[in-house]
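Course assignment 3, question 2. Fill in each field.
Student: A.L.
Task: Predict the tertiary structure for the chain below.
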Amino acid sequence: MSQQPSVAIIGSGPSGCYLAQFLRKAWPESPITIFDRLEMPYGLVRFGVAPDHAGTKAVTQQFDRLFERDGVKFVGKTQIGTDISLEDLRKQFDIVVLATGLSADRKLSIPGEHLSGVHGSGKVTRLINGHPESVLAGIELGTHVVIVGQGNVAIDLVRLSLTHPDQLVDVGVDPQVAQTIAHSEIQNIDVVGRSLIEDAKFDLAMLKELGKLPNVRFTADATFINTDDAEALKKFEAITALIQSSPATATRNINFHFGWIPQEVSGVDKVEGMTFTNKAGDQFLELKADVVYTAIGFAESDSAAINRDAWVTGDSNLDTGYLAEGLYCVGWLRRGPRGTIPANRADAKMVSETIINDFQNNH
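Answer field:
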């Protein structure tokens, strides 16, 4: 075995690319190959980040240098587990890293979730970003949108839904998709989450960005928080500022609801409404809905060719990314669907240190 090992990384999203960067720096001569089932790289950055957030997407320019200058090889249109077995890949490379992420939308697991008009945020975001496997068929908006979730993805969906279609086209969205997602008849968007405002997951910068939307009135059922938690107070103040600055003549509404648990999606063949209850179960919130977006996180796809848990043994250490000798995992696949792109960079750095230390200790 050479002093600088051969490395295969399965998945070309931010975790996989950041990992390749760290390993290339440590091992300038290592043959490093990144595999992806799609013909183009960058995964979450390309298809999961909102198209109007060009600054976040710009990290791909940094990743381009991996393939153009740093000698990292990209092999697209290759499904590991189908086109090539993971066992065969481990025989070909000294080190193999699973960096495939989590692409399936987490389920609400409530009655009515199967109705037409209920869509996961991942599906919608990939559609907006032009994912080659996404189709517009089946997505129709009316006047009332309900978004379940309180994270940045939920805020993205609010903003994109109320951005003029021409502006979406200007940032690369397909015109037909733009006209569908940012439907001109949208009058009401209800954003509903389980957490109270102090525990909501959205970033303040994302929330404040909504204040730039024209012709929008904001409401919220958040109550004043008597707390020493500065971040919690900032969230309440940001919501309050949006409400107070709302034009009284606005014809579009964004309503924030905190502390409500999904109970049922109602309708016959298509979604017509949604019901929530408070945590005590003694109050109900009933909302009209022509479409429901779920933005409550991601999970491993049932059809995933590689299942991480299938490779976990008694010797595995998921805290460091170690699965077995020469086999590792990184990113969302390792730690779950949370964290921004900078968090994925930190994760990749940690796992790269595990890989490097393990190799040096064993050789």
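Instructor remarks: The mean pLDDT is 94. The chain is about 30% helix and 20% strand.
Grade: pending
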